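For homework, think about our next protein:
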Amino acid sequence: MRSITLIFTVLWGCLAMAQQTPAGPQTQAITIEGATAHLGNGEVIENSLLMFSAGKLTYVGSADNEIARQGKVIDASGKHVYPGFIAPAKSLGLIEINAVRATNDQDEIGDLIPHVRSLIAYNAESQVVESMRPNGVLIGQTTPLGGTISGTSSIVQFDAWNWEDAAIKVDDGIHLHWPNSFRRGRWWLGEDPAYKPNKEYQKEVDEIKAFMANSVAYGRAKPEANNPAFAAMQGVLDGSKKAYVYANLEREIIDAVTTLKGAGVQHVVVVGGYDTHKITDFIKKHEVAVLVQRTHSLPAREDDDYDMPYKLPKLLADAGVLVGLQNAGASNFQTRNLPFYAGQVVGQGMDKEAALQLITGNTAEILGISNDYGTLEVGKSATLFVSEGDALDMRGNQLTHAFIDGREISLETHQTELWKRYMEKFEGK
């Protein structure tokens, strides 16, 4: 009994360590001068000058221009400035400790539950969310998991008191996990664990088609009796929300896009998309964007190129597909490695600024927030950070300043506090 009490005491102590107090509104203009500015749209300004006030960028240009500096001036000579990185399609803020059920809100009961809203379960004081900021990941799409239609995501910034303060875009999309056309045998039932065609695939697809057809009929009939699930689907049918469909194999991607487009869904984003490089003409024809799985992955098949996950984003970008990066299959903590996934693509021959767009401008466009976020342009949100070196390289990704909507945020986390504590303890030993 005492051991159980001790375990819960330790876990509660971990949960009780609150995040850094969110920054207050920007009260004075800020100028960042001398850094190399990576704008997130493919452009670079050496010896740059950025100014912002009231949370918005008011000047983006060269420091050589004779223009009056405003407010507090930060000398960033020799450093680099980037727009805040964006982490899409992750359950950040919905789960804290896997072993503690009370901290896990990423999955709800039910298989077709588009009306379940992730935002109201978002924990703005999550230590996992807090740990994103020191690597420049300042925005995320908090996304439910589980079932076939998991629910509705929202886009948040990572320095807030609560979910209301955090919200950037509320209920931006529905997340659909397409059935697998191949399935590994259930070894616990004595089946061969090798991959085999899923005999239930067509049945599972038909269930999704029937649900889509009923959603369309519900929208046309507008019945007095409310059906929350069908009502939640109306956003993807009228174009106000996007449909994020999780699919990897060629057949699954084609079936998913064809089904959704055939039902009248206007905006489709493929998440994962391992085989999308094989059908780029199909992808472009249907104006589908792709959020590629993390590059730090093994090939899916034995006969695939050993570096397929590394080069997939470049193959899609070269073919003219709008592509961003997502870290499917990785833990939420590993989302902080998002910039290094983009850096991996640079190693495959992609231009560094094009790779940066995979986690800034491109992702902002895919999520529908590009009017305010994703690039450093006059009139957009001053959500950015200053790094000692190349932020796509873990050796250079050392932040000195970070801002969300012009508010200078803390880069301290429970992890940096522990690091400093034990560095002091063992210094000189």
Summary: Confidence is low (pLDDT under 50) at residues 1-17.
